[in-house]
Amino acid sequence: MDNDIAIIGISVELPGVRGTHELWDLISSGRNLTRPFPAERRAEMVEFIELLRSSAISEVTDRSLQFHNGSFLDRIDNFDPDFFGMTPKHASTMDPHLRMIMRNMYVAAEDAGYVGDRIRGSRTGVFVGFAANPGQSYMEYYCRIDPTLSQVGLTGSIPTMLANRMSHFLDVRGPSLVVDTACSASLVAVHLAKTALLVGDCEMAIVAGARYVGAPLHHPLNDIGIESSDGMTRTFDELADGTGLGEGSAAVVLKRLDRAIADGDQVYAVIKGSAVNHDGATNGVTTPDAAAQAALLLAAWDDAGIDPRTLGYLEVHGTATRIGDPIEFEGLRQAFGQHTDDRQFCAVGTVKANAGHLFEGSGILGLIKAALTLDRRTIPPLANFNQPNSRIDFANGPVYIPTTPRPWPAGATPHRSGVSAFGLGGTNCHVVLEEYAQPRPATPSAGEPYLFTLSAHTERSLRRLVREYVDHIDLGALDGENIADVCYTTNVSRSGHRHRLGLVVSSLGALRERLAALAEDRPADASPVFSTVPQWASQATPGTGLERVAAEYAAGGPLDWRPIQAGRAPRTVGLPPYEFDERRCWVDLPADWRTRFVGVRDEAPQPITHDIVFDPEPVPAATLAAADVRALALVDPAAGAGPLLTAAGLGGLDVLRLAGANEDPVGPGGGVFHHSEADYGRVAELIVDGGYSHVVFALGSEAAAAADAVELDRRVRKNLSGLFLLTRALINAAAQVTLVVLTRSALAAAQGDPVVAENAALVGLAKVIAREYPYLRTRSVDIDAATAPAQLRAEILADRPGLHLLRGPVRYRELFTELPEIAPTGGDYLRPGGTYLITGGTGAIGLAVCRAFAAAQPGINLVLLSRSGAPHKATWAALAAARGVEDRTAKLAQALRELELLGAAVHVRQADAGDPDALTRVVDELRDRFGRLDGIVHAAGVPGLNLIAFRTLADFEAVVRPKLHAAFALDQATRDDRPDFIAYFSSVAAVFPASGQGDYAAANYYLDNLARANADPRCHVLSLDWVAWKEIGMAVEYGTNTDTTFKAIPTAQGLSILDAGLRSDRSRVFAGEVHYEGDIVNLLSTYDIALSDPIAEKISDAVAARAEQQARAAERIREAIEALEVELTGRPDGDYSEFEVGIARCWAEAFGFPTVDVNADFFDLGGDSIMAISLVTNIGTYLGVQLDAADLLVERTVAGLAAHLAATQPEIDGIEMTEFDDDPQLVGAFDA
Amino acid sequence: MYCLLFPGQGTHLRDVDPNLFAEFPDQVAEADTILGYSITELCLDGDGARRLRDTRFAQPAIFFVNALLAVRAMTRHPDRYRYFAGHSLGEYNALVAAGCLDLRTALALVRDRADLMARVPGGGMAAVAGLAAVQVERTLMAAGLPQVYVANRNSDRQTVIAGERSQLGMASSVLKRSGARQVSMLNVSGPFHTPLMAAAGRAFSQALRGVHFDAGHAPVVSSVTGQRFEPTQAADLLSRQIASPVEWVRAVLTLRAAGVQTFDEVNGTTLTSLIKGIG
User: Fold this and answer.
1) Burial class (CB in 10 A: 0-12, 13-18, 19+), A821
2) In what helix (H) or strand (E) does residue A938 lie, and over which residues does it extend?
3) Which residues contact residue B88 at a Cβ distance below 8 angstroms, ignoring those fewer than 6 apart?
4) What is the predicted pLDDT for the residue at A1033?
5) Which class does domain A1124-1231 fall in?
6) Judging by DSSP bridges, how do beta strands A583-584 and A78-79 pair with one another?
7) Contact B244 A1079 (CB under 8 A)
8) Is B172 at the interface with chain A, CB within 8 A?
9) CATH number for the domain whose boundaries are B123-185
């Protein structure tokens, strides 16, 4: 007795079956519910599968569509969100399992007599058996239709909510959890609930399971392999070929038996004991095991303390599969064999034969059947059974199969039964039950009056309930019960809702007559009716004491049943379950989905390489008048662009001369300045205070290239660092001027043009300036010796952004074009036994290049220049083996070893590429040792990472040197003995630089220009402008290896571009594929470089397609909101503004309410921060206004928001953000 | 050792103690004169909430509430605070609390600063959570977005970016793809603390000309340099502040290195929660 658990409440929902009476009727009649998949659900599913197939990436060739027969519910789309305190919107995204479970748990609790105040705050546990079945979730369905619903649908979809939502709704505090052991889950949940009750984790427990099948597809690829061919479950029958699919839900309420008796609860049956085990290692994880099943039964019987010979009925798992049934029989035989040799004394059956297999929900349904068998003291027949399975020897076993219902006569011991459930993965559970034989002491009533109370969340529900009670009495379900207990049960478990009815009655007969009269809205007799339903309520004043109580109750007051039942020991009796006011809560597949559906376009492959060319372009018409130009020019007398500028005839021109070492610094009225941070600061102040419109930076106007490293360094400092210092000073002085960077013959307009290559770096820096600081409108003009003053004047007055080259009479612009193919002109570029220097060689990309070289030409010398060096060759093998794979040194050693294994001789030289002397020494040493350098890959470099405004000169130069100075040094050092090739690793930054890359862009632009200026046919100089590499290198280390305006380059692709480039005679390859599908591709158009027509066209197509997509999406939102019927309330005159109507529609869409009070607070209505974001987005889209989630924090009502919009809209500038405010602070405030 | 912290425009004035202003009638009267409107109405009336979304009103209001709360805190604990620091606007409160500036002068400066900052059009700010500041910068750079800048280095996990509004939208999508957990627009009108504010900063340096800063009785750590605020450099630091990123991480590390163990904050817990994310 101490360990006995009572089943005190039951709810069952199967197709066409509700409650224990209808379930027992189904079981005892031996009917089954198998039928075709209901037409309406089928039609919806066919459409959806069509959508899935249309959008599948692999084409679906087999378009056949067949559905299993099974025990299917007519509808799975219904719910009563109001009753459960949810918005219709949330309900429409709620998983049908959760809906069924909530309904059935509530009804089971009500059946037990424990809802509302009677259960609130109690330590009641909630246990659910459930498993998510792949491809069947409702969320997957509706997210296909509208992915934005995933957030609102979350709490209706995650499995834990199956238990937690009910604990929350009932406000109960016991354990709340979901069990997944596949088909045994809900019976294991019963076992856990029993244990929790016994150890005191809870004082009552609600246990439930549920199952629906969204798409019961009959197709070789979809079948699990245990499905019955015709949907019928024929357990133990010769024709059994699998299990029929079943849908439905069931719940029970459990309590310790002693407590249940003390509390006057009804008791369906008593759980005596239970056990759970696992098959262990069987032939396969899904193969059942007879020995494990036998051990399970023995353990359960032991736990229950019963002799199994006293069992009269066993509810078996019985899935009717060819393998499963004989194994289950064998388990029974083995287990009983431990206790008795008696034959065929215990009946077996399974409700699966009636209602199909509910999988995770099946165990609890079996438990209910076993309990009802005891309650009704009747052995029911096994449905669909005709001829015993010939592989089972029933005659020599302990069990027999009942084929007709037969009474279960009383014996020496109480009636006992058991129920089994076996999970697909091997978890088995068995529960032993016993009848509750002790009569519940009922105190008969002697005709005294009692108060019958009934209530519902809606009037419609209340009216239906009244009819149900009439039917219930008419069907004899209350025969033998007395009116006092009926009234008591309604008082404690049916009276807490808003819409109410109170009647004072003395007999069941009188109750029936009065309810029947109310069902027809007619008076039964003169007795008063107390109700919230106007048609029912009597006008009479309450007379007796009970009538006064009834009147107060109907008026909304609390109901205290104790005085009414004074002196009795009241009992809970079975009454009709609540009538939910349900409606369709479902995400519909739009009828016109086919027209909306846009399949994935066939993307034509885009070129992965591009080129930058100088494209002749006529001088555009002047947009400035010469008089408008007041320029300050900074010139270097030694370089000399001053005369040309003076001759150009601008409206005003003042010249500042770079001073010699001993000259005075800048003073009022111009003069001279020094190359120093302080002087550039003064120059900037002068420019701002002097009101100049233009600054011409003309220091980089040398006529011939630097001849040696010292001169190069001097010029880079004077010109490039000078421009950097000037720019920084101008930004700090908040200057707003046009900055013209004037160079002379710095750029090779044609291949091999003699140039002053170092000054090209200024162009790279200039490209970045305006991107970082738009108030400095920056242009680069590269003149040559033949440029006439009028040309320069026209150029400045044309005022065009970007770089322009003036070559004689011709003017060129920079143009970005496609390079679909790199035509090979030569063969192998690696000589057998050749020696190749790779700077940055121990970096990831350097090593990848080495590997490619070593593989292509085994036996070469690979010289890796590295700033950080590498461990000695003798230690490579040991290091690679000894340390973890993530250790940098070990990784490097491993990579170097691999190069040797490929057949290369690997030499590492430690030197800083930014130190030209060190570099020259390495080259000299290599020449001494190997005779000749056959090729150079200059891959060294460090990235820049700061805005000019915040960058120090030292940091700026540290980025420039390893690229620029190193390339110059390598070029110089090999001047007399040219290698076969030099490949410079330049960057996208030279062409499309980002903010913060001024130094990096400058240095790389120099590399590009150096390659283009090469005129020596013996040496192929190639510059490669790389976009980010996807798998290795700097971008990976920095986490910037994502697709941006360009797609990141896979390593193999990068190496093949390098290979193709070296086989060609090109001096430049831009290595990168434009990411046309990306959302920021349009950024390319914002750069000053011109885009070729095909590229510009593709970008504008992509932008248009994106805009169209967004417009379509916005239009869809508008249509959806427009289609909503919404009624506004809250203002007596019923006069609402346009804004209010529009906003109310959006609220209706967000909450699902058909009526919106313009003064209702968003948060009081159940709004949360996530909803706030989508709501303001929708209001913005629908009304075409700018609104922020923060506004919703201040204005929380429709009326308030409308007033806010009316007041602010004209001032809004129309810039729309893609992201809305989700500031943690705001979210906190929302949540609070 | 204790440090008293002052939040900037990132805090809000939803929960201002209604009795606060009544406690300081003289200061309130002075503020009304300097501002030309009633500070009480601005902060406490329901209608004020709308005006407070405007930088021109938000900055003086936050500064003034911060300042009164500081008086309260320092009256209660007269000798507790050895260091002061403030986030952007809050730096003015730190200077007042440390005795470098008087309340009236500071309020007038804040008023002018707010006017200048509010005049810079077409920008916005957004908080990026879940990516290190350097990662935010690198990601913006890799994408090639011009005119989006790091504006506040607030903690190891939060960076505020600012710049041109449409580009902030693109930045948001790029940053999320690179792993940012959240990108949230802040309720401010301009690209504060970026080079786009340079003109405002320069104009403000005029307002600072002739303002005298005392040495003060306790050190302030600057949110511009993250180092000790040298009152002799005040005009330069405060004008630069408008167009420079707020180096809050550095400031906090400096304070900790100086021995500060406990940070008290007036007017909310915005900075306290940021400090928890500075390792």
Assistant:
1) exposed
2) strand A935-938
3) B8, B9, B152, B192, B193, B223, B241, B246
4) 85
5) mainly alpha
6) antiparallel
7) no
8) yes
9) 3.30.70.250
Asked if the Cβ–Cβ distance from B198 to A731 is below 8 Å, we say yes
Which residues 736-775 of chain A have a CB within 8 Å of chain B? Answer: 736, 770-775
- pLDDT tens sequence across A434-478: 999 876 666 666 778 999 999 999 999 999 999 999 999 998 888
| Domain at A835-1031: CATH code | 3.40.50.720
User: What are the residues whose beta carbons fall under 8 Å from the beta carbon of A668, sequence distance 6 or more?
Assistant: none
Share of chain B residues as helix, strand and coil, in percent rounded to the nearest 5: 50, 15, 35
Q: List B residues 10-29 in contact with A (Cβ-Cβ < 8 A).
A: 10, 12, 14
Closest-CA distance, B213 to chain A, in angstroms, reads 23
- Closest alpha carbon within chain B to A1187: B187
pLDDT average, residue stretch A575-600:
83
Question: For chain B, what are the domain ranges?
Answer: 2-119+194-276, 123-185
Give tens-digit pLDDT for A75-87. Answer: 999 999 999 998 8
Right CATH for A624-812 from 3.30.1280.10, 1.20.120.1200, 3.40.50.720, 3.40.1550.10:
3.40.50.720
Looking at residue A1226, its pLDDT comes to: 31
Strand boundaries in B24-136, DSSP class E:
81-86, 123-129
Q: B143 vs A1225: CB contact, 8 Å cut-off?
A: no
Please check whether residue A1060 touches B, CB under 8 A: no
Q: Are strands A694-698 and A737-744 parallel, antiparallel or unpaired?
A: parallel
* Residue B88 bears catalytic tag: yes
Catalytic residue among B155, B172, B193, B223: B193
Flag whether residue A1218 sits within 8 Å of chain B, measured between CB atoms: yes
Which of A378, A352, A353, A377 lies closest to A365, judged by CA?
A352
Instruction: Let me know if the fold of A450-580 is the same as that of A835-1031.
Output: no
Beta-bridge mates of residue A26: none
Q: Are B184 and A732 a contacting pair at CB < 8 A? A: no
* Subunit contact B135:A1038, Cβ cutoff 8 A: yes
Q: Which CATH architecture has domain A450-580?
A: 2-Layer Sandwich (3.30)
Of the candidates B88, B155, B223, B244, the residue annotated as catalytic is B88
Would an 8 Å CB–CB cutoff place A1206 in contact with chain B?
no
CATH code assigned to A10-434: 3.40.47.10
- Find out whether A834 and A628 touch, Cβ atoms under 8 Å: no
Is there a contact between A1194 and B166 if contact means CB atoms under 8 Å apart?
Answer: no
How do residues A1102-1141 score in pLDDT, each as one tens digit? Answer: 888 888 877 887 888 888 888 888 899 988 888 898 889 9
CB-CB under 8 Å, A1216 with B195: no
Mean pLDDT, residues A1013-1034: 92
Chain A hits for B149, CB-CB cut-off 8 Å, are 947, 995
- CB A630, CB A651: distance < 8 Å: yes
- Which CATH number, 1.20.1420.20, 3.20.20.70, 3.40.50.150, 3.40.366.10, labels domain B2-119+194-276? 3.40.366.10
What gap in Å lies between CA A822 and CA A814, rounded to an integer? 20
Domain ranges of chain A: 10-434, 450-580, 624-812, 835-1031, 1124-1231
For the cut 60, the answer to whether the pLDDT of residue A627 exceeds it is yes
- The count of residues in chain B is 279
- As to burial, measured by CB atoms within 10 angstroms (0-12 exposed, 13-18 middle, 19+ buried), residue A950 is middle
Task: Provide the token pair at A410.
Answer: 């009383």
Q: What is the rounded CA–CA span in Å between residue A831 and residue B158?
A: 53
Closest Cα in chain B to A1084: B144
Any idea of the CA torsion for A946, A952, A955, A960, to the nearest 10 degrees? 90
